Amino acid sequence: MAAALAVLILVGGSSGSAASNSIADTASATAVGAVLSLDEAIRLTREGHLSLRAMGLTADGAQARVRDAGRRPNPLLTGGLENFGGSLDRDRAESSLMVEQQLELGGDRAARSGLAGALANLSRAQQDQMAKLLEAETVERFCDAWVLQERVHRLREAEQMAQRAVEAAEERLKAGGAPAFERTRALGFRALREIERRRSEAELEAARTTLAQQWGAREAAFDSVALPEPGPAAIPPLDDLVPRIDAHPGVRRAAAESAAETWRVREARADRIPDLQVGAGIRHLADGDGTGLLVGLSLPLPVWNRKQGAVTAAESDHRAAVARERQTTLELRGELQRAYRLFVAAIAAWEGIRDRVRPAADEAMRLISSGYRAGRLGYLDIQDGQRSLLEADLLLIDGSAEVWRTRSALERLVGVRLDAPAPGKEDR
Fold it and tell me: Which of 32, 276, 376, 396 lies at a 20 to 30 A Cα distance from 94?
């Protein structure tokens, strides 16, 4: 009875010490400045995205299971009462108490512990992979918001330019140097710019809200987003970046899956070896009030099921995981080559717009404005010049955002930041 009471106290204490944890569904309390940078947006997403936080808790749980996986099975306390009741005398009753211990043979505990560790590594790799995906999504949303922000600025400038064209048309009309419909055209073109600007402002507000939702905010607490202008510098050659693919979360996840399947093979093989059950205890005889010792030994006989099918299945799953790991590495290397080329192309396109297209459009607009005021050119020339200048400005904005998109994609693949977004002249 004393031993049974001790077991009850032990079980009750262990169950009472188990605490249930809850996930607080609260957004990140980190303050957001008036001007939001790309690095700050990525940091906020990593801290506040609930899916990423949930995966982190799952990874913590997987790591906690590693400690228990390496422990021995708990001993089993059994008791019994025999030869009592019915037509038997009370003096013939026998009571027994025995402690049994399972002795695992064949490496069950090592396989179980190794599998738990591999699953913990897999969980961390999955968390890192999701972080990379969320970072890519944040970069895309940030660039979308920045492009719309800059588009609104350029449309405001274009609207002011269109207003100056209206004033110039009115001056020419008063001087008798232009027909009345030129002023009407100028007013219509200015109205068109105003409509485009208002529509872009609405799209900007929606894009800002969508960006803020990345870290759980309901609305944008920042006033603007800041994206630096790309500058010329060198990046490592492609051959130097290829080995970094091995540290990518996708590769680490595939490797962890292969490792887990390796341990499952060992676990299936160990399970084929029967475990030995050893027991010892005491037996009390009511007749004569005698007490004796008990020793027990049991071993399952693998007669009907030798579990060879489980081993074969585990080996097949392992080969499949290894094939997926190799395929993942090949795909990521191909993605790295594509990202590198897109990055170099984006830099070249942006520099071409900055150095040739935009200055040419600005100079053409200056000459057209001068010729229009002098009466040598008509309003259609003004309209065409303004449209070309706006298109050049918007191309420059889109080109700059594309440089940052491709740079971020390349950095996510190689796992390191590039100090500057442009390749050297020798890489072109």
Answer: 276
How, if at all, do strands 290-298 and 224-226 pair? Answer: unpaired
What's at 401, amino acid-wise? A
Bridge pairing between strands 94-103 and 290-298: unpaired
Nearest to 208 by CA among 404, 30, 34: 34
Nearest in space to 55 (alpha carbons), one of 141, 137, 129, 135: 129
pLDDT per residue over 56-106, tens digit each?
A: 999 999 999 999 998 999 999 998 888 777 677 767 788 889 999 989 888
Gyration radius of the chain's alpha carbons: 37
Long-range Cβ contact pairs of 203-211 (< 8 A, separation 24 or more)? 203/148, 204/145, 204/148, 204/149, 204/151, 204/152, 207/141, 207/144, 207/145, 207/148, 208/145, 210/141, 210/144, 210/145, 211/41, 211/138, 211/141, 211/142, 211/144, 211/145
Q: Are the CB atoms for 233 and 420 separated by under 8 Å?
A: yes
- The torsion region of residue 375 among left (phi > 0), alpha (psi -120 to 50) and beta comes to left
**Residue 415: per-residue pLDDT:** 82
Contact 162, 190 (CB under 8 A): yes
Give the residues across from 97 on adjacent strands: 79, 282
411 within 8 A of 355, measured Cβ to Cβ: no
- With beta carbons less than 8 A apart as the criterion, state whether 205 and 196 touch: no
Report the pLDDT value the prediction gives residue 259, as an integer from 0 to 100: 95
β-pairing verdict for 224-226 and 276-285: unpaired
> In the chain, which stretches have pLDDT less than 70?
1-31, 86, 90, 175-178, 231-234, 288, 419-428
CB 299 within 8 A of CB 276: yes
Give the 3-state secondary structure of residue 96: strand
Tell me the two tokens of residue 319. 């080969």
Return d(Cα 401, Cα 378) in angstroms, integer: 36
Residue 381 CA to residue 401 CA, distance in Å, equals 30
Domain annotation for the chain: domains and CATH numbers? 38-71+104-272+307-427 (1.20.1600.10)
**What are the E-state strand segments in 114-194?**
none
Helix (H, G, I), strand (E, B) or coil at 36: strand
CA distances from 290 to 81, 89, 96, 285, 425 (A): 15, 16, 12, 5, 98
The partner residues of 396 in beta bridges, in order of sequence, read none
